């Protein structure tokens, strides 16, 4: 459903992403791991068509994000980092705007908005202004916008960042509910998330993939089976010294 | 470009103008300022002339101050809050977004312009004005507003800071207005070749407004304003495309 072919991106002299390729199939929840500054967000921004890659491309449901961006974006739900949304709109109004842009009209639009509100557990705040909501509700409002059109591919950049343990639990439950019939990518630097929701994990460091496998396969790389140790060994490898991130 | 997408963006922008009392404050400020300049500074009644020349003469200067205030947030705010990432990963092209936003800001200024209608009624009641000249003046003012809005849109695309965006737009509009302002062109006449003076004045927003204000509806002047708008929006398209991330 989602194929990423050799994505590269430079910012001036800095190579933020240095050739990332992988595929995600239906039913998979891919954890996209890496330390801060490893290139997770940049990669996701290229897959979703926000940033043009320096080279390489992404195929979403067979549509090339560079050649047919509008068709590719139709198949895509995206929750950007920090869950941005229009603060001066009401939750319902915001979702109606998204539904309109996604081409839904009349009754279908209303049904789509209602379904997204229900799935994201936003019933109690649907008439409130987004700027007046707590972080957890704002996160879920942006989540609702990403799943409104029931996309085959869902990409989430740190969906549980800054949430309290209960809110994290709710978001993970929502992801699990949808996992069966979608291809999902979740970026995170929280390792417990991998065990909680992911069927496979990719670790990137310094713009390159350093590991790709199921959580159990990754864990097997360490004699004690500790994921944080594996993560540290891979991303703090002398080949990728910490100073190079500066 | 799909009309429906442009309209959806247009409606959201329009709603966001009126979602806070600032829009009403803006409209009142526009009308009060224009009324003050026409009646108190230009002594509209004391002149005992049944035309609106002394009303239209102030429009460029009022736009200079107020249009940047209406356009400063167009892109700067999307960047600051990160909603630009959401907006440009929806199945909509940048051109559709740009045109929708531009038309919304232009319509907002046009609304303020329409609300000046009492002065037309006053003149008609007190004397016997030439309505053709008045209509022509309104067309000129409307086009001038569009040009200023397109400049403001471009300046907003250059920054994440609304204040910077305001100052840039004000400076750019001032430059383009002053290029045709007689006291300024007179300074150049003394030493620059006539051709240069005329070429600079020809670029000016004011120069083309002058003839429309006098009631000369020349296709050339209309084409000039449309040209300015297309140029500014095309440049904004390039700028946003190249500077999406903060």
Structure description:
The complex is a heterodimer of chains A (246) and B (246). The longest helix of chain A has 14 residues, at 106-119. Chain A is 35% helix and 25% strand. Chain A starts with a strand and ends in an 11-residue tail after the last helix. Residues 242-246 of chain A have low confidence and may be disordered. Chain A has two domains: 2-75 and 151-245, P-loop containing nucleotide triphosphate hydrolases (Rossmann fold); 83-150, no CATH class. In chain A, the strands form two sheets. Chain A has a six-stranded mixed β-sheet with strand order 6-7-8-3-9-10, with helices on both faces. Chain A has a four-stranded antiparallel β-sheet with strand order 2-1-4-5. Chain A has 246 residues and is α/β, with parallel strands linked by helices. Chain A is globular. Chain B has 246 residues and is an all-alpha fold. Chain B has one domain. Chain B is 80% helix and 0% strand. Chain B is built from 15 helices and no strands. Chain B has helices at residues 3-18, 22-41, 44-47, 53-56, 59-71, 73-81, 83-87, 94-114, 117-126, 131-157, 162-178, 182-189, 194-202, 205-213, 219-242. In chain B, helix 1 (3-18) crosses helix 8. The radius of gyration of chain B is 19 Å and the shape is globular. The model of chain B has no long low-confidence stretch (mean pLDDT 91). The A-B interface holds A 45, 48-52, 69-71, 73-74, 76, 78, 80-82, 84-89, 93, 97-98, 100-103, 142, 145 and B 4-5, 8-9, 11-12, 15-16, 19-20, 81-83, 85-86, 88-93, 241, 244-245.
């Amino acid at each position: 459903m989602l194929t990423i072919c050799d994505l590269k991106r430079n910012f001036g002299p800095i190579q933020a992403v240095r050739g990332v390729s992988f595929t995600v199939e239906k039913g998979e929840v891919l954890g996209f791991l890496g330390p801060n500054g490893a290139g997770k967000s940049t990669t996701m921004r290229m897959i979703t068509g926000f940033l043009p890659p320096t080279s390489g491309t992404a195929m979403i449901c067979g549509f090339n994000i560079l050649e047919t961006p509008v068709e590719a974006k139709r198949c895509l739900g995206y929750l950007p980092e920090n869950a941005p949304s229009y603060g001066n709109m009401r939750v319902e109004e915001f979702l109606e705007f998204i539904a309109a842009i996604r081409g839904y009209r009349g009754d279908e639009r209303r049904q789509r908005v209602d379904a997204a509100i229900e799935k994201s557990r936003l019933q109690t705040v649907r008439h409130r202004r987004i700027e007046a909501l707590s972080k957890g509700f704002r996160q879920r409002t942006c989540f609702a916008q990403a799943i409104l059109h029931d996309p085959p591919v869902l990409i989430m950049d740190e969906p549980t960042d800054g949430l309290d343990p209960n809110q994290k639990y709710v978001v993970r439950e929502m992801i699990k509910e949808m996992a069966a019939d979608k291809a999902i990518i979740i970026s995170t630097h929280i390792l417990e998330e991998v065990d909680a929701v992911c069927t496979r994990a990719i670790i990137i460091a310094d713009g390159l993939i350093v590991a790709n496998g199921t959580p159990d396969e990754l864990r097997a790389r360490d004699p004690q089976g500790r994921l944080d140790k594996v993560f540290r060994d891979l991303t703090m490898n002398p080949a990728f010294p910490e100073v190079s991130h500066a | 470009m799909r009309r429906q997408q442009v309209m959806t963006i247009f409606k959201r922008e329009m709603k966001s103008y009126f979602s806070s009392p600032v829009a009403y404050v803006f409209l009142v400020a526009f009308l009060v300022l224009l009324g003050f300049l026409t009646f108190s500074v230009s002594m509209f009644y004391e002149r005992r002339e049944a035309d609106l020349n002394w009303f239209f003469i102030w429009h460029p200067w009022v736009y200079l101050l107020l249009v940047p205030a209406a356009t400063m947030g167009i892109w700067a705010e999307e960047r600051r809050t990160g909603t630009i990432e959401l907006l440009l990963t929806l199945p909509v092209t940048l051109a559709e977004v740009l045109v929708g936003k531009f038309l919304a800001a232009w319509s907002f200024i046009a609304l303020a312009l329409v609300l000046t209608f009492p002065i037309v009624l006053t003149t008609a009641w007190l004397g016997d004005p030439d309505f053709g000249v008045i209509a022509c003046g309104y067309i000129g003012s409307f086009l001038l507003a569009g040009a200023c809005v397109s400049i403001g849109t471009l300046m907003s695309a250059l920054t994440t800071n609304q204040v910077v965006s305001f100052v840039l737009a004000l400076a750019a509009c001032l430059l383009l207005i002053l290029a045709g302002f007689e006291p300024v062109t007179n300074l150049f006449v003394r030493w620059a070749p006539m051709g240069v003076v005329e070429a600079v004045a020809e670029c000016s927003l004011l120069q083309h407004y002058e003839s429309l204000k006098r009631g000369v509806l020349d296709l050339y002047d209309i084409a000039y304003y449309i040209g300015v708008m297309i140029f500014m929006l095309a440049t904004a398209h390039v700028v946003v495309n190249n500077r999406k991330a903060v």
